[in-house]
Model the fold of this input.
Amino acid sequence: MKRWLAFLLTLLLASAALAHKPSDSYLTLRSGEGNGDITVRWDIALRDLDYVLQLDRDSNGELNWGEVRQRGADITRLATQNLQLSSGDKQCAWETTAPLQLDRHSDGTYAVLSLAARCASLDAGLKARYSLFFDVDPSHRGLVQWVAPGGAAAQALVFGTESAQQTLALQPTGAWQTLRQYLADGVWHIWIGYDHILFLLALLLPAVLVRRERRWDGAPRLSGALKEVVKVVTAFTLAHSITLSLAALQVISLPSRLVESAIAASVVLAALNNLRGTIEGRRWVMAFCFGLLHGFGFASVLADLGLPQGALVLALVGFNLGVEVGQLAIVAVFLPIAFGLRKTRFYQVGVLQAGSLVVAALASWWLAQRMFDL
Done:
């Protein structure tokens, strides 16, 4: 069990150190009325384009608008070579409809391509094959919002190495399909939201321990540890569900840099608390207070995915449920292993104390990155 826990922690910390947010691009495809034309907005992260095309010509570590604009044709060519739309056995032809632009997402600056795919007809159906960055980053995904003819509710699609080719429905998608898709997106995004996972784990690490005479000792019964876990997870879930809904429905909006910086700070505080046990017995309060901030972080991800206006509530419910399912899966793996090791020095010193120090250091680096836009 020690090996399993050490492996899981090492894998998580290594992944988190590599990147806060995996590589995604965002596409909105909208069918024209009564013809085979499809308008496309495609947002691609500059960091990904720079890695492949070496946009930073002076190698100073910073991209400016001039460097990006000069390579506009190369960016467009790279994109259109890696997205094929076809109806029957005929491929649609690409056309640029507006100059390259830039837009700011929650995780950095993106190049925005405005394109049109000219298809002879959609009578034979419509298929898309996506392969952008797969050769250099197999974890990259293309997140697509497809608006079928007639302006029906958007269909959410996720393209990855194992789902590179998909059919775009020409009829409105059903409620169950929308719910299922956004539920899957919610599960995926809690699993790749390393700051959210580390915050939750930092709060749960002491759940299998009790504080006696200023030192940690193993909890005597699983029921006590389970009660503490339920309190923390419930508080975190309730809090981020509130702000996720409010932000997604555009009732409240906060600057993304402020939210992301505050989330990183919450991880630092949760990890450092494990070294002194200052908020022992009231970790659920910390989970609720900082969970409100984490909800805004989830909302920024949901905004990047795009909410179908015709099925907004269903998409919001599905995404939120997905976050909870993914969260519970993490807890289900963590709790039995942690409880089995709770009385060992490996857990009390190696996992709780050393692990918390590593998490605090990593989150401090995230905090500096986000505060100063490094």
Notes: DSSP finds eleven helices and twelve strands in the chain. Residues 7-20 have pLDDT under 50 and may be disordered.
